Amino acid sequence: MSFRGEMQRLDPASGRPAPYLGGLSAADLAVSADGRWLAWVAFPEATLWRSRADGSDRLQLTVPPLSVNLPRFSPDGAASCSSAVPRGRRQLDPGRVRDRRRS
């Protein structure tokens, strides 16, 4: 990812960074252990999203005023979790978001 938060991948042919998933504005990308799922924090909204690695089945998992960071997948890929803070608060509340529609 670049400083702007644009999701990028390394283009194998050119060896240069190229936009990934349409140059999605995101931070804190996580990849499931099997490589099939992605989770990220939309920038600047700080909302948690997930999709398949090819960008399909994109789903927003949180909404403001919750501000999310550091998404992670469980080892079996069945759940994602992240650190979340209600906007305006200074202490962290660990949050767990389970997406039951995943297959």
Please tell me about this protein's structure.
By secondary structure, this protein is mainly beta. The protein has a domain at 26-97. 0% of the residues lie in helices and 44% in strands. It has no helices and 9 strands. A 4-stranded antiparallel β-sheet has the order 3-4-5-6, with no helix packed on it. Strands 7-8-9 form a 3-stranded antiparallel β-sheet, with no helix packed on it. Strands 1-2 form a two-stranded antiparallel sheet. A hairpin with a 5-residue loop joins β3 (26-31) and β4 (37-42). It is globular and about 45 Å long. The model is unreliable at 90-94 (pLDDT under 50).
Q: Report strand order across the widest sheet.
A: 3-4-5-6
The number of distinct β-strands equals 9
Q: State the separation between the terminal residues, measured CA to CA.
A: 27 Å
Number of helices: 0
Biggest sheet: strands, sense, closure?
4 strands, antiparallel
Keywords:
103 residues, mainly beta, 4-stranded antiparallel β-sheet, 3-stranded antiparallel β-sheet, globular
Concise overview:
The protein has 103 residues and is mainly β. The protein has strands spanning 8-10, 17-19, 26-31, 37-42, 48-52, 59-60, 66-73, 80-86, 93-97. The two termini are 27 Å apart.
List the helices and strands and how they pair.
Elements: E1 8-10, E2 17-19, E3 26-31, E4 37-42, E5 48-52, E6 59-60, E7 66-73, E8 80-86, E9 93-97
Antiparallel strand pairs: 1-2, 3-4, 4-5, 5-6, 7-8, 8-9
